[in-house]
Protein 1
Amino acid sequence: MITATVQTRDNYLTHEYGVKSWLLTQDHKRIALLYLAAISFFFFLGGVFATVIRVELLTPPGDLVSSQTYNKLFTLHGVIMIFLFMIPSIPATLGNFLVPMMIGAKDLAFPKINLLSWYIFMAGGALVMYAMLIGGVDTGWTFYTPFSTSYANSYVILTAVGIFITGFSSILTGLNFIVTIHRMRAPGLTWFRLPLFIWSMYATSIIQVLGTPVIAVTLLLVAVERGFHIGIFDPSLGGDPVLFQHLFWFYSHPAVYIMVLPGMGIVSEIVSVYSRKKVFGYRFVAFSSVAIAVLGFLVWGHHMFVSSQSVYASLVFSFLSFMVAVPSAIKVFNWTATLYKGSISYDTPMLYAFGFIGLFTIGGLTGTFLATLGFDVHVTDTYFVVAHFHYIMVGGTMMAYLGGLHYWWPKITGRMYPEAWAKLSALVVFLGFNLTFFPQFIMGYLGMPRRYHAYPPEFQIYHVLSTAGASVLAVGYLIPAIYFVWAMRYGKPAPDNPWGATGLEWQTTSPPPPENFEITPVVTHEAYDYSILEEMTVG
Amino acid sequence: MANHSLALRHQFDDVVQQKDASTFGMWLFLTTEVLFFGGMFCCYTVYRSLYPAAFGVASNHLSLLWGGVSTAVLICSSFSMACAVNSGATGKKNAIVGYLAITILFAAAFLAIEMSEWHGLYQEGLMPGFNFTFHEGDARHVQLFYSLYFSMTGLHASHVTIGIGILLTMLVRAARGAFSAEYYTPIEISGLYWHFVDLVWIYLFPLYYLIARHVHQG
Amino acid sequence: MSEHIVTKKQYGYVFAILLILTLTTTWASYFDLGKLNVVVALVIATIKATLVVLFFMHVYWSSKLNKIVVVSGVAWLALLLWLTLTDIVSRGWLPFPGK
Amino acid sequence: MNPNFQLVPEAASSTASHLDHLTAYLLIVATIFTVLIFACIFYFAIKYRRRADHERPVEVEGAMTLEILWTVVPFLLMMVMFGWGASIFFEMSRPPDDAMNIYVVGKQWMWKTQHLEGRREINELHVPLGRPVKLTMTSEDVIHSFYMPAFRVKFDVLPGRYTTAWFNPTKPGKYHLFCAEYCGTLHSGMIGWIYVMEPAEYERWLAGETESLAASGQQLFQFLACANCHRTDKPGRCPNLEGLFGKPVQLTTGEIVKADEDYIRESILNPGAKIVAGYQNIMPSFQGLVTEEELLKLIEYIKSLSKLPQQPALVPSGQKAAAQRPAPNVNR
Ligand code: HEA
Ligand code: HEA
Ligand code: CUA
Ligand SMILES: [Cu+2]
């Protein structure tokens, strides 16, 4: 780890040594790093699956892997990326690290539960890994019945139980955050002085706490139905497979906001710092997070327009889907307006934030296409949908996550990352990303169904473009993976506040001491008030 | 007093904040539990609204007597749990231990009744997945009823079991004198959990046992 | 949060009401009230549940925040049921209204 | 048409062109906003780039009018999307009354289609140009989805119930048929072709088929001994099925349900679920005794009983009816 010659002050990394001091730690910062390690592993694993998918799709016939294998590949790609990477990604790493620091607390409200939730996550993850190693699962990440309960010939129960378990880790993290944000804010830190990242983590936590139990019980029922051959969703046993879809999407639509809200929070922080301005329309951005969290629960039926859901229900869900797009629009416009008359610097995090805003806009707009009833009938279950969600999740959240990692890297490790390499990789990621996923919009509208192992030759040109893009993208992700590891040891030592930011986390040392602050800070200013900066840098 | 300052963990400023945070956290956890059971209640609602007749027929195969008794037993356990919390608040160590013991006994009785009921249903051939031999009328949806019945009472029973574990821990801690009138939050929180378990049953009872008693008496 | 200690006597009253309501609901289920049977059963169950939440679980005396948490749990459950039922209930309605 | 590079799929049905207009609107809105956002970012980023390290920009307070503007304008644009999309969706989910019916059964991993005239196909579907076609679909195992990109039509095919989709082909040719709902190992192999033919050619293609669907249904009705109970000459124990289809049925529970395909299917497979008022639950279940395709034949037969009530030949009175066109709307 970091050598004591550079870090003269006691910090959370050097406070204790040894494997045990990490595995039994109750320090939210160390737990965040434990999560970071686990999550990075899962991301690269999911990425490897994506790579094989893309290579297979280079040619129309299914020639690289068998159909069964292909189906397992995209299922595991989806399951790992969603449940083991993206949902815990920002909340459990940056959120864990930053929530207490940003509100001036010594730790989360329940440190033991925080550690427990990491172990629960690892247990669930291990189960999914075990299922993967002994043969995998081929139901798609959506586990639709009756295929998953009565027909699939793979390890559905193990995987479902694995996801069921990780669900509890997500619930506990959310619960911990809500209690912490309510009860442990520093003196003077009123709700409207909170950084927007906190607001978005708060909104995310609401979804985690209220939504996750439903998917947990749904997957439990799938496992039970499959294990004991009793009818709950299987129509040949009297059940209703569409009911499963309702329960599944009741969680899984809100879950997409679990995946994007934290990213939005990061972008709010970054956009403000690198233009040295208050976020335009702070209250609108803050409230829109909560609005998204609440409205997000009302729209799940837009995944079921052709599922034989009633036409009236589809109508209601379509309408509500447009309602939830409004708060997202508010955010996009406010970020853009924040740039106006700012003092904009092009540090790597800002480049990622730009990427987020642009790509999220495209992903979101195509989301409203999908919410449009007649249009969705044509493109549902085609690559149009695949492109839509990768635009938001990879183009949006992944960008924000990388932006956030760069932005707080100095605080987390006490070292700077190499700026030139970082800028280069940001550019590569942006270009590679668009090349990968833009062609998918077109082939989706042309009718290329998703989850296809082999496909008619007229789609090949788009698949080739997409695969080419994916290779560029992979390089773009490989570069930061290398220089982050390098920077942990060899990076320039970081000052306490390298970016001239105003958040409380920047007012302590880099890396922070075990209890975050030498003295509990008292807050007297609104968030993003850069006039206090002069006092700070002088002092 | 020394006792409770020991119980203050470092991340909190004072005990009030700590206690508040704990109860608040427990309530949040209980909302997740509401939605956890909620997924199953949703299945129940949908299927009952689709197949009311089959549900009525199926329901009348459950024993109303034992259903009613187990409801009463759970309510009794809730009452004694409430008394345990009261004893906690007034700092009566022996009373806490006694009431917790009574609660645990009631809980165990509940489980025993439930097990015997399940056993009876199994013998009647009404346990889907193990022994389902019912063929009259809309047998498929009678089976659906029993699939849900066993899933939901099973999930509930697992909560009862966990509850017993928690209460036993509390009992041991109380007996060792870990609690006082100033510090009895764990007992209060366990109480919340226990009452929630009771609450679920308050709905399960009418929804499963009282659907169609007026139709086919018996 | 105010430290309110509920006496055993108060608990006793609630306990008695709960038992009486259990008997009532069982008794009521023997009458053929048509669709009202469900309603009666659910109303009584909800009264019981409310008593438990308010008094056994002390929500009556606890902070506004806790009350919000309780209400939102129930509200979200209602949401799940309500929007799912929009589908189930209206399935037969279209595409041929009036036919 | 260069098969290797297209930007827009072929539009070969009436719905397709309606949908493409909506797509144009969506694309315009999306392009405007995407360009707007990108342009603002680039413009601001360059114009207001940091020039000095200690630069402190003036604070710009939020502006209420702007907030309202960018809430209301997208909202209105989205309401247009909603209304337009909904109207096309209604069009898609409401087949015209004169549509010809074709049955589809999906199973892992093939499509079986049946014409009323009796012709059956696998992974292919022939339809005449210019006539609305209504598909009544079900699955033997898991959920599939019947997708014809050139018609912009897709609908899930579920086990245990009937779903419908319809289209009106406007261009002769050969078009893709895909399964769009993941259904297991060979999901991507569950594909086929739709042939849209000139009407005369279609008639020729159909001809040569001896027995209509309803006629095979009638034979099954005899074979399975349904006719022993359901007879018109001796009413009493069992309901008369003549004129049943499409009519409301009163059940013993007092409920009234419509006798549609799903109801008849349930009556055959699970007769105890809904008992007709005035009758006993004595009908045996035929679950496992009839296949999905046979069910469709029975349904088509029962349907034919209501379409031609005046024709005694189709009444199940015991003697075999001569094969004849059962429904007037299919022999144009
Ligand atoms: C982080 C993830 C994420 C996010 C944030 C979203 C956001 C949205 N999604 Fe997406 N979605 C997914 C992940 C996500 N989605 C996934 C994973 C699937 C597929 C699941 C599967 O089947 O495997 C999916 C599928 C999906 C479908 C189902 C498609 C199908 O299967 O047929 C639909 C349909 O309505 C939809 C709609 C939307 C909408 C309306 C939004 C809105 O919230 C977007 C709002 C944002 C904007 C609108 C952009 C900003 C606004 C402006 C710049 C203003 C101008 C705007 C207008 C004038 C409109 N999504
Ligand atoms: C957060 C979620 C997330 C993320 C990050 C990604 C990332 C990627 N996804 Fe994924 N995807 C999903 C979520 C996600 N996906 C989901 C939910 C589905 C639906 C599943 C289903 O249908 O059930 C899906 C489906 C899906 C499909 C459709 C499969 C099908 O329907 O048949 C495709 C096809 O192109 C695809 C591609 C990619 C690619 C190229 C990336 C790339 O961004 C990945 C890039 C990352 C790496 C490549 C790893 C890092 C780099 C290295 C380790 C370097 C070494 C590697 C090389 C040299 C190659 N994804
Ligand atoms: Cu059949 Cu996919
Ligand atoms: Cu969604």
Protein 2
Amino acid sequence: SKQEEPQDSFNIAVFVPGVVSGSPIYEMLAAGAQSAAAEYEHVNLNIIEGGSNQGEWEEKISSLAATGKQDVIITSNPAMPGICAAVSKKFPSQYFIVMDGYLEDNDHIYTLRYDQEQQAMLNGHLAGLVTSSEMEGANDQLTIGLIAGQEYPDMLDLIAPGFLAGAKAVDDAIELDFRAVGNWYDAAKGAELARAMISAGVDVILPIAGGANQGVVTAAHEAGIYVLWFDANGYAQQPGTVVGSTSIQQDTATYDTLVKAIEGTLPYGEAVTLGLESGFITFIEDDELYTSYVPEKVRTAQNEYLEGLK
Amino acid sequence: MSRLLHSLYLIVLFIVIIFTILLLISPEPVMAFEDFVTGPFSNIYNTGNLFAIAAILIICGTGVSISFQAGLFNLGGEAQIYSSALVGTLVGLALPEGSGFFGILVVIIISMITGAAIATISGFLRYRYHIHELISSFLLSGGLLSLTDFLISNTFRDSKSFLQTTSKLPESFYLPSILPPSNLTITILIACTVACILWFWLYKMAGGYEMRVFGLNKDFAEFGNISSRRYTILPLMINGACFGLAGALMILSTQHAAIVGFSAGYGWNGIVIALIAANNPIMTIPAAFLLAWVETGTRTAMAGSSVSLEMSEVIRGMILLMITLRFFKNRRSRS
Amino acid sequence: MSRLLHSLYLIVLFIVIIFTILLLISPEPVMAFEDFVTGPFSNIYNTGNLFAIAAILIICGTGVSISFQAGLFNLGGEAQIYSSALVGTLVGLALPEGSGFFGILVVIIISMITGAAIATISGFLRYRYHIHELISSFLLSGGLLSLTDFLISNTFRDSKSFLQTTSKLPESFYLPSILPPSNLTITILIACTVACILWFWLYKMAGGYEMRVFGLNKDFAEFGNISSRRYTILPLMINGACFGLAGALMILSTQHAAIVGFSAGYGWNGIVIALIAANNPIMTIPAAFLLAWVETGTRTAMAGSSVSLEMSEVIRGMILLMITLRFFKNRRSRS
Amino acid sequence: MKNHEGIQLQHIHKTYASNQVHACDDISLSLELGLKHIIVGENGAGKSTIMKILSGDIRPDSGKIFYRGAPVSLTHPEDALNLGIGMIHQVLHFFPELTVREHLILGMKDLKPLKKIDSESIDAHIAQICKTYNISFSPDEKVEHLDAVSRQLTALLALISRNVEVFILDEPPQEVLMIAQRLNEEGKTIIVITHNINDAISFGDEVTVLRGGTLQGSYETSTITREFLANRIMGDHDSQMLLSGGKKRLSHQSDSRDLIGNPLVILEHVSGGDLDSQDQVEDISLEVGQGETLAVVGIRDNGLKALESLVAGYKQSTYRQTSGRIRILGKRARESSYDEVGYIPSERLSTGGAVSMSVIENLIMPWRRDRALFRSSRIPIYSSKRLNKVAKDVIRDFSIKGSTQDSLLSLSGGNIQKLITARALHHEPQVLICADISWGLDIKTREALFNAIEVLKSRGMAVLFFTSEVNTAIDEADRIAILRRGRLVSIIKNTEKVTAQSIGEMML
Ligand SMILES: Nc1ncnc2c1ncn2[C@@H]1O[C@H](COP(=O)(O)OP(=O)(O)OP(=O)(O)O)[C@@H](O)[C@H]1O
Ligand SMILES: Nc1ncnc2c1ncn2[C@@H]1O[C@H](COP(=O)(O)OP(=O)(O)OP(=O)(O)O)[C@@H](O)[C@H]1O
Ligand SMILES: [Mg+2]
Ligand SMILES: [Mg+2]
């Protein structure tokens, strides 16, 4: 059947640098791609998981490109633009889309990223509000926590500073306790780090550590302090403990981008940064778990900040 | 007396080595050292966890000791724990919610059977087709780990959870706690019992005796008319059952659900324990405590932010190597 | 004639098994099967990669064969590849940018020395203190893997990269390509040369003869005045050097930088290859191609038909197990 | 019918897959219970093979086995043992690290995996058997410290304690044969493989002859003569001459050499041995001259093995020389090359070769670095042609049955012994150190071997020969040194007056 419609068919390969299940950002990537493909008869979609060995990603993407059958390869993660650029050298006719990454001036690569600094500022502002609030689990000390899976450029240059800046917008005296787990899976070590932070007086933590997030939530729940969530709606993780969540609409963004690619209108070579105003980054205010657990005063202040940023 | 001196010397040596390593890699070596040494006992939570980790390690180490004593190499421990824990959990989930003690027993037995079955495949292949159990257990393990990952994160995934996990077992399946709020349950008692029983079997009963002889030199076993079928398959079966037990206990006492990758590393650590304990089930107890102490110690040192995660692994590796070296040298000079 | 029939039967059996597995797990089994079988040869890129993977496997397998033939067990291959690749890369980065051929040679030699040094530790401990090389290499490997992870992702990390990796080597360090755009470089030639040389040494020269005797019968070796120190240490040294070479070649031909975990699995696969090849360096060549074919085949099948990563690992494991099974059964029936 | 009460092998065929040797060709045997049966035949005749089949060690390609009238299927030695049939192989498989007691425990029938081990009653049991059969050794001795005879005794003890009814003994030493006699008196069936025709006729009730894998016939020993038996074994060759070899050959040669030639082996006040065991020697002084055979007779673990190891310089980690001086061709032990000193160790398979390696590879061990084996004297790479030529020469010269590429494992016991001997003699060494070389060789081969040694001796080779068999010493030596508890009692000239009895008395 492949050969009957060579002219018409449009093949999309989704390369997931990791595994889909368990990672909200990749789940949204897959979902967005699936709904875009579902709209067109002639679009074939293939989702390929690359696994956790970073050393193999380039080779795996290359072998996708080598088939020569993929009209576009879409992937997501800040490391991928570099890898796609390298592959592009070997397969100059292959088109790539990289979500959540940034690379200018390669006329076969389109990148799209979210303004993570802004997103972190939103989380940071709420953290500032929480730590200085009268909420049950909050203490007098003005320290907020950020637990990362690893230290990587965007984390150090954008997220952590954004997070602190958001908090300082509440009270300039607020300090940041930043620690890295060292990997993206070890929940037990996540919990240990969280406990250490808690004993150092932190009362609200933003974990950006993949599977290790769960350990942070557990430790926070035990100690009765608060957790914020990044990238996807996380209130249900532990109602009452997770008191704030930003999200990015990677599914919609993927859908929009792919539709343009299928229609032939995607401007390859461009690098887009989506900010708050685009609507692809939000702070989730309309969740019942948010409204019921977070005092009105805090919510109002957060809403003002959110509107102000837009 | 000289024995005592020697032990003292060893302890001092350890301390110096650990401290030197920390000095090299930690920004705050004194604090890190303090965290490392006293951390595991600084609060009930840590101490309880140390015991909980040790319990699982004892069981894994004892199991591996058995197959090592039979001269068999089981490299498939990782999957034997993980897959059998999943199977046990699924059976537990299928049982009525208030199954309590009976439910716990069923989960344990099912997990043990699963673990034993997986390991037995390798034993059978070795006996029947002379395929080295080292290859078959390793390859089988690779496949099963992925399969289990797949099953947890797709087929049996709890759609309400953000984690890649099955649903949680009902509370009636939780093992009774010792030292709350730590993870310690009666696992430590079970573990010591298992180690003692297997020790007794190994050194005081005919089957264990035959198995050890078989392990010393398989080619010559014919002389004693030792059944090579029995002692190729049985040790792996016991080993697998131990891993299954370890998996079930981790589920029943700590995790309460099969989470992706939750048992990673225990299969390998079982080998390490067995090696340190020179394949003596009773000796796995101190060996496991040592490892658990190093484990919790590096964790608390890390949580105190004085050491990074990988570095803590390095320290762990170094300490293990030192222990093994000293231990073996010591043992050798005695014999 | 019956030999031929038997081979045919084996091939048919393979096909049936692979197909059955695919039928069970793939939404489009026919296509997946086609991809699996022909995928590795469907384009230059895949074929090149198959050769590139096989090259590394040949080197690892040959190295392990040598220590196996001497009756020594090196379980530390993972670290011997990984750590020595890192050391090689760092030295390469320290050299002037346009070092070219000379730079490549230095990187290779340094990596080989590093790998050999690591393995030699175990040989020395075995000879001097009677600590089993299996224990020491395994434990040492655990520590070194973590240390290498740490060094790559902290001390020597390329702060501009999003990956956990060192900086890339300059282009003058890249090995000459064969079959661009694939990853295949002259590694395959190096690999076959190494296998042939070591085969030659093993079966046609006095040193190899002595080593084999030592591996088979220590008493006979002593009878013939064969140095037990030399043949406890040398084989591990060669084995380690091979792993170091494999690490260096992966860096110089494919990765161009030491990325965290890039070589994971090759140490174990070396053992698998050696066992399949019955420790004969020449036979590691077909064994490595078989393994590489399965590897590339599952990759292309996965890329073509949306089989999940875990499932593809399961297929891979199964197929390898089958191959090993048939292979050994076959070999056994011949003897 | 008496036969139905015994053991019957019917139309047994066995072809070894690896080399297509047809080791048993339609062999049918009927062995009556309660008798002493002897199996004889040349090296490679298939004796061990047929008995391994009866003991369940290997499976026949076709044929039936009946025991006490019922057909039996023997797939594992355990099957045979459960029927009461047990075999002692000449080269025994042991766990070197275990003690005698532990070996015996292994053999116990009523051992159940969950049964506790009661070592006291086991000791009592061992003591009782030892007393009954007049065997002496301590159950705590590690098997690796036992000599070949004691190992055989251990194996026999294990069979006795398993209540075996049919004992198959593959070339047992005299000590074992003596116990077998007692066992037979108790009604047990004994099957003995031997090359010793005197033993065969004096010990056995019935003798079965095999040749080239086929059955030559079974005879009651009371009805046949040595000459007849030798003839059946070897065919129509001049078996007469061979039977009368030994001392006769010696006596006419040694007349011409009264003087001992230039001493090539010199031991001066040598002490040492395995310091952890009885196997030690003290203050040994002796000389072996050109063209002379000196036999050292003694009990193996009372210093014989130690002396052998010290002189050969073998196992230096176990056998230490504490004082004295050893000079062979003016050099220390082990310092000479293969064409100066040849060594045939007493532990044939364990130290004499690597069983899974080929005949060639086993042969070239001593001269593996010899340029003559390389493609050219510059490049140290073996030339297959040259290797093959050497191997073929040796195989031909010593009429070894087997081909160069076969593994050592696929040779018969006697042929392995030939190969190891051939290796030591091939380069015509000036000194030969050897232990029990005739062990396991058939009459013809043994004769050929000693003739070959005579030839070398006439060219000046000195032979130092260690043996525990007094008769061999008397047959083959020019002088005999008698070792007792690690000390030399005396060194005597081997004249007509010397008898086994007189030497035996000095050894005790
Ligand atoms: N495992 C084996 N594989 C292949 N061939 C074998 C094997 N064992 C014995 N043979 C061959 O079978 C023949 C008979 O061997 P067997 O051991 O039965 O001889 P034997 O009568 O015991 O001789 P000997 O007196 O030398 O021990 C020999 O030619 C030998 O080479
Ligand atoms: N330790 C061993 N390991 C492997 N094979 C062995 C071993 N000992 C003996 N064999 C093999 O078993 C066969 C018979 O050996 P065994 O010594 O029992 O023969 P035999 O006929 O009793 O010898 P001989 O005729 O020299 O007395 C031989 O082919 C030999 O290669
Ligand atoms: Mg506060
Ligand atoms: Mg024989």
